[in-house]
Specification:
Order of helices and strands: EHEHEHEHEEHEHEHEEHEHEHH
Strand order of the largest sheet: 2-1-3-5-6-4
CATH topology of the largest domain: Rossmann fold
Number of strands: 12
Bound molecules: 2'-monophosphoadenosine-5'-diphosphate
Helix content: 25-40%
Distance between the termini: 28 Å
Structural class: alpha/beta
Number of helices: 11
CATH architecture of the largest domain: 3-Layer(aba) Sandwich
Shape: globular
Radius of gyration: 18 Å
Length: about 270
Amino acid sequence: MKKFAVFGNPIAQSLSPTIHEMFAKSCAEEINYEKIEAPLDDFETTITHFFAAPQTVGCNVTVPFKERAFGMAMHKDDAVKMAKAANTLMLNSDGELCAYNTDGIGLVADLTNNGLNLKGTTVLLLGAGGAARGVIHPLVNAGIEQLHILNRTIAKAQDIADDANNPKVEAVSQQQLAAHYDVVINSTSASLSGNLPDVPDSLLATCKLAYDMVYAKDNGATVFMAHAQKLGAGQQLDGLGMLVEQAAAAFYIWTGKQPATANVIEYLRNC
Ligand code: ATR
């Protein structure tokens, strides 16, 4: 049986085992996927020990270990280098640790599933933490026309834009905002504490889609989604689809099989 796990601290809340077990069933894979709470001071040893087992194929990594997972890996693709944080690890055929960040692939897949073609669109990304970094590379690759990053601490947005090194990606102040964006994405952690990031109402009122990377509890709406809806945004989405799609991208890296996701999203939405 192929062995997988998700490492975090805390980890009890993780939906990853449920998601990957559903994927495995639909792809005829026999897997064992555990939640493992790694000690804060001993993450690296825990990972090394996990990969020493012959049945181990790969793992996911979540808060607060994504940066340390990135630091451990010998091989890093462009998306994970931009993110500076890994959510997916596996060993290559030479036994060397490879790091990936599938969060942005998950976001782009979810936007596409919901009818949005990103080609030529203008995007405003709110926030400049780890969650923002993880989605830059796939958004640019999806053919967006312009990506503006607005953050409470502008220097952090500027750091991301500098690392992206692409004329389409710019850090902006409130004064430098465009008059309209097709998509506004909230990557700040403000929703988790019931707060709204500071963004002009007019931008939420006129966007086609307001997307919150956090997912809504009990099938409701996050404060950001409710606010955007009240102002008249075309559509609002939470990050549940992104969560399932980032898992699907990890599953594909590990097994070469692309699992169906719609049924998993629907199941989680209703449970
Ligand atoms: P994550 O890894 O989830 O992105 P993080 O790295 O701590 O978490 O980043 C959190 C982001 O949310 C930051 O951009 C933060 O803004 P600052 O860089 O100015 O700290 C943003 N954020 C958190 N709470 C916020 C709030 N109430 N209003 C606006 N932005 C907020």
